[in-house]
Write a structure and sequence with these properties.
Mean pLDDT: 89
Number of strands: 4
Low-confidence stretches: none
Structural class: mainly alpha
Shape: rod-shaped
Radius of gyration: 25 Å
Distance between the termini: 37 Å
Helix content: 40-55%
Strand content: 5-15%
Length: 168
């Protein structure tokens, strides 16, 4: 007669109630890595403008995990700059003109003019932008699209680490 015996032991961190803590730790770590990657990649794709990386749009882009310690951890890479969205998406033809005074410094640096001449030229440039628009840089969209496989790797690795740690 053949006999089959199965025994199940309850040992390991999963049976000790440590799973939520382990999962949170690994996912938070992965989210930090993912947001750091995307922040770096968005900054690479962001036009520097006349103020350069230290004072322009690039300096306003930051990424960080949010809702840490909750069932749903999120990562955000964003800018607080009022120009972020218009540089990302561009400006459509026939849309409103850029605000008065906003292009003077850009004109001074790009065209080598003094403030008085730049101020006179600003109206013409604002009107032209309003009439013709300009294409977006899509730095956020491109950074996400072009790094999706890296992001998948980061979270696949986190899943693997969770399983390894739960089985210890």
């Amino acid at each position: 007669m053949m006999e089959l015996r199965v025994s199940i032991t309850q040992k390991g961190k999963i049976f000790e109630g440590k799973a939520p803590e382990i999962i949170q730790k690994q996912l938070t770590s992965a989210m930090y890595e993912a947001t750091s990657l995307l922040e770096r990649e968005v900054k690479i794709r962001t036009p520097t403008g006349v103020f350069g990386a230290q004072g322009g749009l690039v300096s306003t882009i930051h990424g960080e995990p949010v809702s840490k310690g909750t069932p749903v951890i999120k990562g955000v890479v964003a800018t607080q700059s009022k120009y972020g969205e218009v540089i990302e998406k561009g400006r459509r033809v026939g849309k409103t003109w850029p605000p008065e005074g906003e292009l003077v410094r850009w004109i001074e640096v790009k065209m080598g003019l003094d403030a008085v001449h730049a101020k006179h030229l600003e109206f013409v440039i604002r009107r032209k932008i309003g009439q013709k628009g300009f294409p977006g840089a899509y730095m956020f969209e491109k950074a996400l699209d072009e790094n999706m496989s890296k992001l998948t790797e980061i979270f696949d690795k986190a899943g693997f680490e969770i399983v390894l740690e739960l089985n210890q």
